[in-house]
Write a structure and sequence with these properties.
The complex is a heterodimer of chains A (about 300) and B (about 325). Chain A is mainly α and about 300 residues long. Chain A is built from 15 helices and no strands. Chain B is mainly α and about 325 residues long. Chain B has 14 helices and no strands. Chain B is flat. The N terminus of chain B is likely disordered. Classes of the chains: A mainly alpha (about 300), B mainly alpha (about 325). At the A-B interface, α1, α2, α5, α6 and α7 of A face α1, α3, α4, α5 and α7 of B.
Chain lengths: ~300, ~325
């Protein structure tokens, strides 16, 4: 029985292309179902736009308003007016952009570097160290947040963006992804040729590996950017409302007032989603591809 | 060392560069790999591994935010925790929400993936559309759905009223608040899981379906007898991922009707999760009981490991039962 289950994945690889033949053509029921699924997927985002484009009184209208209203820009104006809102929303957006960009660059770079070493360089303890990287994937790191908080107090980093950036500079997931990609996608001959030309390991990395991993770097970068942009618990712990990321800012707007101003809150939500939405519309195809690729290899 | 390469010393000019180059090359081969992986391990040790180990130590002390002296109190925090009904309440809530969100979510994801795995017009559009919720931040999900689930003017109750069900107070009941939170989790993750299943489905070998078709299996029976068994490793993967994520549920519940609950998960703690309770003891409402919070953190790690193992054995047992 063991032998049987071992044999299956090997066969799987061979018949990769033949899959298309088995597909039935989709009937009308399929499309109805899928369109329903899409509508459910889109509705909450659409709803946030609807509420964000009315005044707060419209939130309590019965029956509820289902179409966008004229107040979106007025609400955005209120959102960025620190006299009305408890936080500096523009600053929050800038902070999030800084944190997410820095983290994205370092994660992609360090992952490619370590991935290159694990995939193509020979050194003592390579296997063991890579297993260690994988093991860290299973450890819920956030749970060290109490000592990490104490650490940040000692470093004097509380309420500074450093506290949000530093713990996220590397990820095991990124190293894993890059190792798999480099092992399978960069031919050894290419590296050998560079060596003959007198390249040391660093120059091989810079001139051969980095250009070759660009597609995976794009996927990893996008996923990292999104995760960092959307992170909430840790920024909530180390930042305060005077120097927040955008998630902390939106949550603060939602919790600080006794009677919630939903049109304002959901304007904040909508604006906080907007950058990722634009990125997703431009590059969603690659993200979908990256997730599906990662799923097959993982 | 390499920076002062031998231009200034004419005597060595012939012999030394070759020897030095050889030495450099050996150094490069020996050291570079370790240099290249060191950023990951350095940063991870400082901000990942050390805190995790230190949590174990803190959990054995009575440390608070401002206390000048820290006492070692052994397993006292754990002893307290075992008799802490708020903690067990949080454990129950977390598992309840996990179960309510994960089971329907993964089943639905399987169905969606199966349907996406046909010849379709606008394939990329459908795939992108179901992944869209994944882009939405947890904060936005929590706040948008809180508004949708509002009891007097919320959209959900408006639709329910059309069917004669009036005024559900979603956040005040235990089960109803679990349902509302599960819907948030499901909305964000179903599409992602569907894409993972879809990817795995596309690598199932054609011959298996042909053989099933020869045996007279129609589409539905092919799904049950070929697709699902072949997907088991992937299903296992998604179950483990959802276990790790689900037991750490925080943001959705923390911001759900936050105005009234103040982070305790409702007036009766009916939807307070484990991480929320940890947060409450850690930084919430002037508690600052770091030692106690650290004990909660370690119990959570244990629960995740245990529950992950249970799920692993459950899913792999089904596999051996059917093959």
């Amino acid at each position: 029985m063991v032998a049987h289950s071992e044999a299956v994945p090997r066969r799987r690889r061979r018949s990769h292309r033949a899959v298309a033949r088995r597909f039935d053509s989709a009937g009308p029921f399929t499309y109805v179902f899928l369109i329903l699924v899409v509508m459910v997927s889109l509705f909450p985002l659409y709803w946030s736009l609807v509420v964000a484009s009315h005044d707060n009184a419209a939130v309590y209208a019965y029956p509820p308003k289902l179409l966008p209203g004229p107040n979106l820009f007025h609400n955005i104006h209120r959102l960025f007016n620190s006299g009305i809102v408890s936080v500096d929303f523009a600053k929050a957006l800038v902070n999030s952009a800084i944190v997410s960009s820095v983290v994205t660059v370092t994660v992609v770079f360090f992952s490619a570097l370590a991935g290159f070493a694990f995939a193509k360089l020979d050194f003592r303890g390579r296997k063991l160290l890579f297993v260690l990287v994988l093991a860290t994937l299973l450890v819920p790191v956030q749970l060290g947040l109490i000592p990490l908080y104490i650490e940040m107090i000692h470093f004097g980093w509380l309420n500074s963006l450093k506290a949000v950036i530093a713990p996220n500079l590397v990820t095991a997931f990124g190293v894993f992804l890059m190792r798999q990609y480099i092992a399978g996608g960069v031919p050894n001959e290419l590296i050998a040729a560079a060596r003959v030309d007198g390249c040391n390991s660093w120059r091989v990395f810079w001139h051969v590996i980095l250009p070759a991993v660009r597609p995976m770097a794009a996927v990893l970068g996008l996923l990292t950017f999104m995760n960092t942009w959307n992170d909430f618990l840790w920024p909530l712990i180390v930042l305060n409302a005077r120097n927040p990321t955008v998630q902390v800012a939106v949550a603060d707007i939602a919790t600080v007032a006794y009677t919630p101003d939903y049109s304002l809150i959901l304007t904040g939500c909508f604006i906080s989603i907007l950058p990722l939405l634009v990125v997703f519309l431009l590059l969603g195809r690659q993200i979908v591809g990256g997730i599906m690729q990662g799923a097959v290899k993982g | 060392m390499s920076a002062v390469s031998g231009t200034g010393r004419p005597g060595e000019a012939v012999v030394a560069p070759r020897a030095r180059r050889k030495l450099l090359r050996r150094l490069d081969a020996k050291l570079s790999p370790y240099l290249f992986i060191s950023p990951f391990f350095l940063i991870f040790s400082v901000f990942g591994l050390f805190p995790l180990g230190y949590t174990a130590y803190v959990s054995l002390t009575d440390r608070t935010l401002l206390a000048p002296v820290v006492h070692f109190i052994g397993l006292h925090n754990y002893a307290l925790l075992i008799h802490d009904s708020y903690f067990w309440n949080a454990v129950e809530n977390t598992f309840g929400i996990w179960l309510l969100s994960t089971v329907p979510q993964l089943l639905l994801a399987l169905v969606i993936a199966h349907i996406l795995n046909t010849k379709l017009y606008a394939r990329t559009f459908f795939r992108m559309a179901i992944l869209l919720p994944q882009v939405t931040s947890l904060v936005a999900v929590a706040l948008i759905f809180t508004q949708l689930f509002a009891h007097d003017y919320g959209f959900v109750n408006y639709v329910f009223a059309k069917f004669g069900v009036h005024h559900i107070y979603w956040e005040s009941g235990r089960f109803s608040s679990w349902v509302a939170l599960s819907v948030m989790v499901m909305w964000r993750w179903t599409g992602y899981n569907a894409l993972i299943y879809l990817a795995a489905m596309q690598s199932i070998p054609e011959e298996l379906y042909e053989a099933a078709a020869v045996d007279g299996a129609r589409r539905f029976r092919q799904f049950i007898h070929v697709t699902v068994p072949m997907l088991r490793p992937t299903i296992l993967f998604t179950v483990i991922i959802s276990t790790i994520g689900g037991l750490q549920l925080f943001t959705e519940a923390f911001l759900f009707q936050s105005r009234t609950s103040g982070g305790t998960g409702g007036s009766g703690r009916q939807y307070q999760t484990i991480v929320m309770y940890l947060y409450e003891k850690f930084l919430g409402s002037t508690q600052f009981k770091f030692g106690y919070a650290a004990a909660i953190a370690w119990c959570l790690v244990l629960l995740i490991a245990l529950f992950g193992l249970v799920n692993y054995f459950l899913v792999s047992r089904i596999r051996s039962a059917e093959t």
